[in-house]
Every structure is written in structure tokens, then in C-alpha cells.
Description:
The structure holds two protein chains of two kinds. By secondary structure, chain A is an alpha/beta fold. Chain A has helices spanning 10-31, 40-52, 73-78, 91-97, 107-118, 135-146, 163-184, 190-212, 223-232, 238-257, 283-290, 304-307, 318-331, 342-354, 369-385, 401-422, and strands spanning 62-66, 81-85, 127-131, 151-154, 269-274, 294-299, 359-365, 389-394. In chain A, the strands form two sheets. A four-stranded parallel sheet of chain A has the order 2-1-3-4, with helices on both faces. In chain A, strands 6-5-7-8 form a four-stranded parallel sheet, with helices on both faces. In chain A, helix 7 crosses helix 13. Chain A is globular, with a radius of gyration of 21 Å. In chain B, 42% of the residues lie in helices and 20% in strands. Chain B is built from eight helices and ten strands. In chain B, the strands form two sheets. Chain B has a five-stranded mixed sheet with strand order 3-2-1-4-5. In chain B, strand 2 (13-19) and strand 3 form a beta hairpin. In chain B, helix 2 (81-92) packs across helix 8, helix 3 packs parallel to helix 5 and helix 6 (188-210) crosses helix 7 (226-236). The radius of gyration of chain B is 19 Å and the shape is globular. Chains A and B meet through helix 16 of A and helix 2 and strand 8 of B.
Amino acid sequence: MTQKSKIETPKQRQNRHKAMEAATVLNKIKHDFKVPPKAMDYFYDLYERVHCKQHSLHADRVKVGTMCIQVPSEIIYALDAVPVRLCNGFYTDDDIGSDLLPAKSCPLVKATIGQFLSNNFSDKPDVIVSPTTCDQKAKSGAIIEDMGYSVFDMEFPRTKESEESREYWRRSVRKFAKELSMDLNKKLTKKKLKEAIKKVGYAQHLYHQLNVLRKHTNAPILGIDMFLVTNAFFFDKIDHWIEATAALLKETEQRAKDKVNAAGKRSPRIVYTGSPPIFPNLKIPLLIEQADAVIVADETCSSNRMFNDMVSVDEWFIYDMVDSVADRYLKGCTCPIFTKNDDRKRRIVDLVKAYNADGVVYQAFAGCQVYEMEQRSVLEAMEKEGIPVLYIESDYSPSHLGQLTTRIEAFVESLKNRRRKKS
Amino acid sequence: MKYFAGIDIGSTAIKVALVDENRQLTGYKISASGSMFYKYAKQSLKEMLDELGIDEKDVVYTVSTGYGRKLFKEADENISEITANAMGAAAAAQGECEIKTIINIGGQDSKAISLDNEGNVVNFAMNDRCAAGTGKFLDVVAMNLELEVDELGEQHFKSEGTPLAINSTCAVFAESEIIGLLGNDHSVEDIVSGVHYSIAKRIIKLVKRVGIKEGIYFDGGPALNTGLVQAIENELGKEIFIPRFPQITTAYGAAILAHEAYEYENSAE
């Protein structure tokens, strides 16, 4: 009889598995590399609290769960609520979500659905906003709604060049602002929205300052640490995030001055693009940096793309502000869901040049059709510029690291060789 | 005399190769990987040295490569099998053929590697995840047909007419497909040649991803299978170069890299 009490509930088991996943990755980041900036401790601790111990950060606030980067957080903050990005990186949840979705779906979507299915949140969202960006996300909204959640489908266009699509999206954002305001019973005021735009803009500004330090020949900060910083923006209290990032910026500036190198002497410099690495699925970035390369910049929606473009407002009137917010989310977006995507290719090439990178690693989640499809044209564009690219398909599963390691190491070796021949 | 060792710990076999100061192949040994990669690799190296009558102390630099490369703690360096394979192929074909493309079929994966004029890796592609169309697949086929793996080549040439279509190169699915063909009274040799063509088609898809440049080198255990070689040549419409010892190209490359690294370290001082 005593043995029976030992059986865990599914929730306990899931939490244990998730804590293990998170702790394994955190330990690797903390201990497998040279000394990180001290200010990173805030972020390590944050992940430990939220992902290993399931601590809630926003218990007293209304939480708006966002299914994609395209939900304007400025509007949510202006309505006194907290945006919590639900894009999920846990293999445990991916496994749970596979019960409901086709086998060949995207692991990120499966993990997101899996978290709803297991109803296992450190901060459970009160309302969910699901933009109709990619097919799998668009269809996920309805699945989640069936589980009894309140879901708002936010219509998103698949082209961005046309005037029609811009107008369509502006209307969609206006509708979102209106409905959320009604739903939360809060008025969207000029003052509040302006404050929110300024605050998110300041967070973006800090990220930019930090990011340009990665242009130094001696990388003052590793790519995996940067992914932790940007990923934390998904769920952290924005004021805390700003404070911690400001401290990290100050320390990293000093490190850059002191020519501290977080990577190796001859580490090839990598620009990372493709399906978003989300904690704890930092598998590929970790393998890259363990193979003695360093990620100096990225083009992903879990990192760089969140901070790329700021809202630019002409007139600080409420309607102008809402439209400006809408424009920032559509025009700057380089997601592969769009019909054509020259912006993305241009951005990757620009990053390679500006950050003096030796090569590009392009990851697509197996099942993420749009990233898989866009691979060919991006690879062609890189080839034209003479930029070496490694294309990797991967998922959240912790196995098969052997083959991935071989590919990444061989790529890094070839970049080193190339550089040696050049000099 | 100083010697340099390359140890290639693969999924199916451990290959060790030794070169001297002139990068001449002094000896090599191939053994099964089994379940204890590290132990068997050490054993294999020792046995080779004993057979050659070379003192372990004269081996001054060791490079490990292959799937289990990180397990071999005594190695001075470890390097991915792609870099080592490129190095070994260029050396093995030296004076006979300038290698631009490498096809490698191993125990559980297959690769296509593209080289530049100086023998550097410029691009490569690997099969994803499963053992489809690899050495393991040939093992399963041979077992189903009550043949030894080294009889497959001979059987292939007995086949007359159009090779049978085998649609799956997955070891598990192909098994039932082969049983189906046997049930329809197809001959063993026609099935064997069908299998070879299905592997050839698959590997060529991989090669196309890196670009087919002439000076094509084929290595790994399955390169000993003359039937498979013919199928790949026919599918490509091009001649391919088979080294004298196709199984040890990568270990040989690692041994050369060991020599290179040793020279570099000692010249730097």
C-alpha cells in the first residue's frame, strides 16, 4: 500500500520532466563555457524560478496569452494587462501535444497545444490572442477554444507589399484594440498607449545597444546568453527585464572595452536564422557554440525580430498611434509566411556583412513548412553573395544529437579552413 | 620513425589507420564497433600496432573521428568525419584522380561532400535520421535473401532485363516489399539489382543537393559492392572512382590530419 502513494499524478510527472529539461540546458549554458557576464545571473535565476520551480510572476495581473510575435504588446500593456508569449520550447509539451495534432506538425505548435492540454502554466493566460499567421497557428486557435479558453482570432494578411494588406491589418489591429478593451473593461487612453509605446521602445533600444556590441572581433557575449535574454521578454515583468538588460549592457560594454572574448580565439562567427529557438529548445545554438563557433547575430522571431523595428509615430493621437503600432508589426516582419520574402534575404545578408560573420546556420523545424520551403531561395541568395550556409532540419527531440553534432562541427571546421586560406 | 594514427569510430565498424612521416599508409585494421566503442577502439589500435611491430610510443599524434570520436579520450584531437573523409579521399586518389565530389555510405548514414580545387569541404549533405539506403539496409536485404553481404555484387550481375522497382529504402518497409516480390516469384538476382538501383537513386538525390562535379569518389563499406557501384554509375551516367581500401578513407584522412597537426604544432614553437 505504501508503494501506491509514490505514483505521481500526470501533472507532477510533467512538471518534473519540464524542470529536468530546463535544468539540463541551464547547467550547460552556465558551466560548459567561459565565464559569462555577472549580470546574466538575473536571467539564469529567472529561468530557474519560472521553468524549474513554476513560480508565477504575474499573479495579480490580467494575462493576455499571445500565440505569435505578431500580437502588438504595446496595446496590451496600455490596457493594464501583461502579454505572455505562449510559443513553447518544451519537448515534454511537444510530446503531449502530439496526441491532438498530425505527426508531421511543427514541434513549436505541438508544444504550445500540449501546454494547454496539460493545463500546466506558471502564469495561466486569461485571454488568448491567436493571429492567423501560419496555417498551423491559425488552426490552433480553434483547438484551444474547444478546450474552454477565450480565444480572439486576429486576422493577419499573407502579403505585405500591397496597400490593401496594410489597410486590412490596420483594421485588424483597431478591432483587436477595441475588443480587448471591451473584454478587459478598460479604456485605451492616449496617455497609456504613449507610455506603453515608449516603454517597449526603450526595451528595444537596450537590446539594440547590447546587440551592436557583438560586432566586436572579440565576442563579449555568447549567442546562447543572448537567446536567454530575448526569450525572457516572452514572460518576464517588463520593468525587471529593462533593469536587468541595462545592467547587462553596462557590463558587456566594459567587457568589450577590455577585449574579453566569450568565445575561442579562432571561433567562426555565425548568423543564425530560421525556426525560432525557444528555451529550453536551444539545442542548435548550443551545439554551434559547443563546436567552437560563436553566434554573433540572429534573424528569428524569438529574438532579433521582436526588437528590430520600433513603432514610429507622427502624431500622438490615439488613432495614429494604433495605426503606427500596426505598421511596425507588418512592415518589419520577415516571417516566411509571406508570399515573397526579399526582406528576409536582404536582412540576413546585411547581418552577415555588418557583424562580419563567416557563415549562416539555417534551422527549420521538421513540420514547419514555410521555413522548409523558403530554404531553397535563401540558400540561393547566400550562394550568390558567397556566404556559406548550413541548413538543418530538427525538432525538439533530445535524441539524434550525434548526427547534428557532426554536421555542425564539419561546418565549423570548413569555416575555419576557409578563413585560414583567406588570410 | 614517427607514426600518426587516425581512428574512425563508426556506427558499425571501427577503422584504425597509421601513416608514417611521408604520409604513407603503414597499416590499418577494421573491426566491429559492437557495444563498447571506446574499449574496442583501444583494443583495435593495440592489435594493429602489435601486428606491425610498432611501439606505441612511436605514435606521436592521434586524431579520432566518426560517430564515437569523443569517447576516445587519448586522442590529441577529434575532428568530424566529413573533414577527415575529404582529406582521406584527396590523398587516396592522389595522382590518379582529382576528387571534387565524395559519396560515402556508412553503416547508418550516407553523405555527399563537395570539394573545391584545393580539396577543402565547400558543402555537404547527409541523410536524415534513419538508416534508409545505408549499409544496415544492405545487411537486412542480404539476410532476407539468405545471402552474405559480399555476395550481393555477384548476384547483381546475374540479373537480366530491367531491375525491379523497390520503392522503399527504409530497412523495415523494404523487408515487406522484398517478401512481396519473392511471393510473386521474382528471382533473387532481380531483387538484388532492384535494391541497388533504389539505393543509387536515393544517394544521387543527396549528391544533387551539393552539386555533381566530376572526379567522384565513392567510399564506405558498401563501395566494395560492385553491383551497387555499377548502379550508381548508370544512374549518374558518370564514372566513379573507388579507392583500393574504401572502408578506411576516413581513418586514413584522420591519420593525415594527425601528421598535419603535429607538424603545425612543432613548427609554431
